[in-house]
Every structure is written in structure tokens, then in C-alpha cells.
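Record passed on underneath.
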Amino acid sequence: MAQEEAPSPPGRAETARLVWSTLIAVDHANRTGNYAVLRDLGAPDFRSANDPAKLAVVFASIRARDLGLARVVLSNPVYSEEPGLTETGLYEVKGRFPGRPEGISFELYFQYAEGAWKIYALAIAALEDEADPGAETGQE
């Protein structure tokens, strides 16, 4: 699908909102077992590549671990690199939410579609401690 011309990248506050809302959407999907809303929040390319059943499989390890993604709203994301546009126009945001006993790392890509930045791809992992990124992941 052709990508809409994106406006300038979101500012810091909007970027944090995108991160929080995406992780909360995954948390709600994991808690309810209903991945339809998460899918529907995505860009058209994300929606066409993922049905709710596929997303349930993708996030099974995060769901089984009960990572508790809702706690991300209690702190600001720590970015591992400055968020920015890729050569293909996706908005790339990588970082973590430190925490004990485990933190959360994320790699999110947003596509500008239908007048807004929408989920294009995402990966979430548990961080056992700050030195070890952990092995449990949910990716798409």
C-alpha cells in the first residue's frame, strides 16, 4: 500500500504518547485475549499483515509472562537513540522503561496513514536487569 506523505516527526510529548498508547493497547489485548482492537489501531499495512489470531501468537510469551505493560504510564520512556524517520518514512522509536524486578524494552515503528501516526511494526521484550536485555519477546 502506498504510504501517505508524512508531516514532520512528532515532538517529544507526542512520541511518548505513541509509546504509551501502543504498549497499553498490547496490554489490553493480552489481558482480554482480544487482539482485534490492537490490529485495528494499526496502519493499513499492519492490518493486512496481521489478523487477531496471528497477533495472539506473536504476543503469547509476553502474555504468559504477565509483563504488566500498564505500568509504563507511570514513567517516561528512556530512548536508546533519538526517535526519527527512517529512509522509508516510518517513524522509529526504540527504548525502554527501567523497572525492578524487570524492565521493558520496545522497538516501535509507526506509519503515517489515514491522517495519523499508526502502528506499523513492534517488538516488546522483558529486561531482567539493565545489563541483560532478556530473551522473552513479542515481535511483529
User: Anything to note?
Assistant: The radius of gyration is 14 Å.
